[in-house]
Write a structure and sequence with these properties.
- With 84 residues, the protein is an alpha+beta fold.
- The protein has helices at residues 52-64, 69-76; strands at 8-13, 18-21, 24-27, 44-49, 79-83.
- It has a three-stranded antiparallel beta sheet with strand order 1-4-5, with helices on one face. It has a two-stranded antiparallel sheet with strand order 2-3.
- The two termini are 21 Å apart.
- The model has no long low-confidence stretch (mean pLDDT 91).
Length: 84
């Protein structure tokens, strides 16, 4: 159990909105440069920080960073949990 007394918590991931084709997972978060799903994105990213808007944005942006999701979140100086 996680108790939050202030701040926000948000999760972004491909658990519910994903398709599998020929053994490859394709999530619903699209790379804005290619229009295709982000390659090597985590299955799930949860972020805890001071503001709700901030955590929602950072969780989705981390997914967009694919392989570099954890590096991106480390630079943001927030608490996070990544599942690959």
């Amino acid at each position: 159990m996680l108790q939050i007394q202030s701040g926000g918590l948000a999760t972004s991931g491909d658990t519910n909105r994903v398709i599998e084709h020929n053994g490859q997972r394709y999530g619903h978060i699209l790379n804005p440069k290619t229009g295709y799903p982000v390659e090597f994105a985590p299955r799930s990213v949860t972020v805890a920080a001071q503001f709700c808007v901030q955590v929602s944005m950072l969780a989705t942006l981390a997914m967009l960073h694919g392989k570099q999701a954890e590096s991106f979140l480390n630079e943001q100086n927030v608490h996070y949990w990544c599942i690959r």
